[in-house]
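WARN no homologs supplied; continuing
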Amino acid sequence: MNKKGQALVEFIIIMPIMLMILLAIFDYGRIINAKLDLEHAMDEATLKDNYNEYNYNCNTSEDKKVCKMSKNIELSCPILVSILSKEYKVEIERVAYE
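OK structure emitted
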């Protein structure tokens, strides 16, 4: 029996699955990184109290200020694209009570 041929066939079957898993991990990491970037930018704007320097959507009412920020991430993993969409929108929202 030819063991090398069997190992090659098994590798060819498993390789696309492993690549999809790696791409999904990479895309998920990019989504988490974008969310952390948005959280950091929102924290900076909150500390400086300068929401106009950053591109935020801030709506003020008489008792609170609601600020939202979003960023689009283009996904590359076909599995995540079929589940989510080609562009995934990362959004954060903060409510500042006055």
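The mean pLDDT is 80.
OK
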